[in-house]
Amino acid sequence: xxxxxxxxxxxxxxxxxxxxxxxxxxxxxxxxxxxxxxxxxxxxxxxxxxxxxxxxxxxxxxxxxxxxxxxxxxxxxxxxxxxxxxxxxxxxxxxxxxxxxxxxxxxxxxxxxxxxxxxxxxxxxxxxxxxxxxxxxxxxxxxxxxxxxxxxxxxxxxxxxxxxxxxxxxxxxxxxxxxxxxxxxxxxxxxxxxxxxxxxxxxxxxxxxxxxxxxxxxxxxxxxxxxxxxxxxxxxxxxxxxxxxxxxxxxxxxxxxxxxxxxxxxxxxxxxxxxxxxxxxxxxxxxxxxx
Length: 291
Prior knowledge:
Layout: E1 7-12, H1 16-25, E2 31-37, H2 44-51, E3 56-57, H3 61-65, E4 71-74, H4 81-88, E5 94-97, E6 105-106, H5 109-112, E7 121-123, H6 127-140, E8 144-155, H7 161-165, H8 167-182, E9 186-194, E10 202-211, H9 215-230, E11 236-244, E12 247-254, H10 266-290
Parallel strand pairs: 1-2, 1-4, 2-3, 4-5, 5-7, 6-7, 8-9
Antiparallel strand pairs: 8-10, 10-12, 11-12
Helix pairs in contact: 1-2, 1-10, 6-8, 6-9, 6-10
């Protein structure tokens, strides 16, 4: 039996996010990292990408549109993403947006991962969204949420320049995704970049005010959610979950456990692991269609 052809993937952005993506793609059974595109010859990330066997370019989106590519991962920034989508919309590729630009179909693998089978423009929302949406989706099935508050904390060392520039978009897009995917009327998201040493693991604290709460199904569902996410992000943990009258509180911790990432960079791990998983689901669909 001949070996199945791998889809050719490109990564836009050569920061921590982009290089970890490239590394994951080199280990994917269905995709290969054909290109990492940045903007500067002095970018350390491009040198790392070349070291792991990926072709590199400083021509950004122009390099991607000029290459033979099936899947594009945008790990740049929210301001640049609309132009990237405009350049690729008619190219027949899958564009996976890891920036908080709020365009594309908002997807979290355990919530609505099936959308990767039909949409050509996927939004991963944010690292905070990937951490809390699985829990909030489960919560919304067993109560009627009236207000949801999310506070995320990332280590300063895992928050690059794009992350810091995109804080406003991160908050707005995560709030929008929480409202849309749980149908809660009000949501508030706050983000903290912690300079503490040793660097803390990525954490998201959730508070839900709700009516018609079903405590037992909620408690049972919490473990099921964590187990489902750990299939692709092994360091995912619902560290606490409390139901008290009309209030639900939860703490999610994500520790990076694979590849080149330090343990505290769970924010990078969860969104990248989700992105690759969804793209592999798309690749599987392409394979079935080709039969």
